[in-house]
Amino acid sequence: MLDDQGEQLERVEGGLDTINQDMREAEEHLKGMEKCCGLCTLPCFKTEDFEKNSEYAKAWKKDDDGGVISDQPRITVGDSGMGPQGGYITRITNDAREDEMDENVQQVSTMVGNLRNMAIDMSTEVSNQNRQLDRIHEKTQSNEVRVESANKRANKLITK
């Protein structure tokens, strides 16, 4: 389930990157239309480069996460993978029932250890996705401002 969610977040972030590229191209076209006779920019149409904005730089910096890693290292805290040397239960009669109880407790311990490792992996994935959501939020805000700015420029061209 978290893997599917991660893939969806990757697609959303990819879509935002595409919008950013399209806006860069649209701004170049707007800049061309704002020029007088296609040669020089009129002072009334002078606009600052959106990509020099600090908010843009913050949102579109290189990803902090780096490349895709398919096998994350696990956090282990004092887990040697084995139970106590003498077994989990105190031997009184030293018969087959105590052996079976010890085996059952060892299996339960292994299962609890597996659940713990799964919980750690899920926590790591959720943390990564939270960072990705923060990046998506910043990119979305940047794209929104950029589109609004381009719309204003286009409307200004239409009215003149």
Automatic annotation (TrEMBL):
Annotated ranges, domain T-SNARE coiled-coil homology: 1-33, 95-157
Region (Disordered): 63-87, 140-160
GO CC annotation: neuron projection; plasma membrane; presynapse; SNARE complex
GO molecular function: SNAP receptor activity; syntaxin binding
Pfam families membership: SNAP-25
One of the protein's GO biological processes: synaptic vesicle fusion to presynaptic active zone membrane
This protein's name: Synaptosomal-associated protein
Protein's organism: Elaeophora elaphi
